[in-house]
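Entry for the shared binder. Reason: the reviewer on the internal report wants the predicted structure included alongside the sequence.
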Amino acid sequence: MGATSEQTAQPRPLAAAWGALGTTALVQVTDGAALAAATAILDRQLRELDLAASRFRDDSEISALQRRGGARTEVSPLLVELIAQALRAARITDGLVSPALGWALVAAGYDRDFDELAVADGRAGDAASAPDSDDSRGHRLVVARVARRPRIRAARQDWRAIELDREAGTVRLPAGMRLDLGASAKAYAADRAASTIAAATGAGVLVSLGGDIATAGQPPAGGWQVHVSDDHRTVGGPGQRVAITSGALATSSTTVRRWRHRGRSQHHIIDPRSGQPATSCWRTVSATAATCVDANIATTAAIVLSEQAVPWLEQAGIAARLVAVDGAIRNVCGWPGQAR
């Protein structure tokens, strides 16, 4: 018998997720026909990011750059932009968010990819913008200054000693400095992938890298539905469900990426003032901004600032949700209230 014309078309999937960069990569699109292209673009860009900025790969650009400490070195346009974003984060937070903390993370025992670190510890693993960018919605990250902090003592630990020439595409690091572009690079990758996918496919898109979220294009009706919690892998558990219609959302937390080193519990958010994992009254901070980079700058700085975070965020006008160590929740600058 011939095929019947009454066959029902199967709906195309709208999301794909996989492990990447020691975390979970997720892409969602409003048009299932765009998913294959969206997945390919995100996967390619994450591979480019890893080769440029991974401090765990001997063949990465950043490892080669560190081996040439003291010498001006030509690097790829991608690494130039990643370092520029990290230096901007340091500049507008007065060093609270610094790229010069690779030495501190190694000292805390974070000297390999987190999945390998978690296995070694016997734990489950976590599974080109302008210097001060605006967008058409008028969002802007304006960071409040805080009281002057002690100067970083060693030049090899001071982000201000990094010399970046964006036009020439060159970087010079002090001898001995170890970079960690960490969260700012992941956030930039989310922004870059979302805008590239939207331009290439015409679909609305959401990209999430370990819970750092960027959107582009027309959102679905009602906005992108996102579960905000301590752990980006949690769906339907403790947390809050919000809708994103534009821009980005980032979450920084001390609860998931934890390990033990020399008998002490450690986490990955370093306080540049001490060189140690931050001691904060907040376990998790989520914030919104025009870009994922800006949102991530705010959440990382808020964890480091601890008790000073709320007035700092309020002065900057950044909508945020802060979860205290005891689970108490503080919403600032118009973050939506908790559902009953």
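Summary line for the report: The CA atoms of residues 46 and 189 lie 7 Å apart.
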